[in-house]
Amino acid sequence: MRICVLLLILLAAPVSAGESIRIAVASNFKPTLEKITDPFLANTGIVITYSVAATGVLATQILHGAQYDIYFAADKEMPQRVVSEKGLPSSDTFCYARGKLVLAGGAGGLSAIANPQLSMAIANPATAPYGRAAMEVLARPEFTAGEGRKLVRGNSVAQAFQFWQSGAVNMALLPKALQPIDATDVPLDWYQPIEQFAVVLKHSAAVDEYLQWLRSDTVRNMITDAGYAPCS
Predict the structure, then answer these.
(1) CATH of domain 2-99+194-225
(2) Which tens digits make up the pLDDT trace of 2-32?
(3) What residues does each domain of the chain span?
(4) Does the fold of domain 101-185 match that of domain 2-99+194-225?
(5) Is residue 61's pLDDT more than 70?
(6) Which residues contact 125 (CB under 8 A, 6 or more apart)?
């Protein structure tokens, strides 16, 4: 059924083969964005290039003149700042997902966060929204005993994931969408909602065609299946 819907959408859309789209995307969303973009690329011939980093790092690049067409952030604040400082229409921002946090590692489940003997990796809270959410979780009263642990901050969620996957740390607080093995869901009310917004930085026929695909029910279902909650 989804394939039929995909074909109908793409056949109805104008073909912009040979055009290109430059996308800045937060690390947590890159694997999902590739999956939902592959069918679009196969049917349009449009070329897409990605720049991947933490949300705050990408925003700084954009505000200093980096040329992208679309910016997928992991929060709402950075796209709003970009819109404000670059004088873009507010209508060119939109929520595309709500992130979920999981604990990777920690055989005892979430209670393992209170164990100071278990090291932890998180994304840098100064530039990554998932890092800020992780700090909110670590600050909960029931985890006070774990404050003396070794806490490693990755430049992005992707690097925090690598720290855990390589065995450099015992645990990591990560986006569910990265699908770490045997991870435990962190309750959504333990941290501020991670509302992930995008902003269109430059319109073109290819960009508008891509936006039509992104707003389809097929893509919304793919984003949910990847481990995100729908926008509220």
Answers:
(1) 3.40.190.10
(2) 544 444 444 444 455 568 999 999 999 999 9
(3) 2-99+194-225, 101-185
(4) yes
(5) yes
(6) 131, 132, 134, 135, 153
Which tokens hold the place of 207?
Answer: 């960009």
pLDDT, tens only, 185-229: 999 999 999 999 999 999 999 999 999 999 999 999 999 999 999
**Strand 20-26 to strand 47-53: parallel, antiparallel, or no bridges (unpaired)?**
parallel
CB 119 within 8 A of CB 151: yes
CATH-assigned architecture of domain 101-185 = 3-Layer(aba) Sandwich (3.40)
Instruction: Return the amino acid letter for 9.
Output: I
The token pair that represents 88 in the structure block: 């873009």
Q: What is the pTM of this model?
A: 0.87
CA dihedral 18→24→27→30, nearest 10 degrees, is: -20
Say how far apart CA 114 and CA 84 lie, in whole Å: 41
219/5 Cα distance (integer angstroms):
10
Q: CB neighbours (10 Å) of residue 67?
A: 11
- Rounded CA Rg of the chain: 19
**Distance, CA of 170 to CA of 34 (rounded, Å):** 29
Average pLDDT of the chain to the nearest whole number: 92
Length of the chain: 232
| 127 contacts 117 by C-beta, under 8 angstroms | no
Query: Is 151's pLDDT higher than 60?
Result: yes
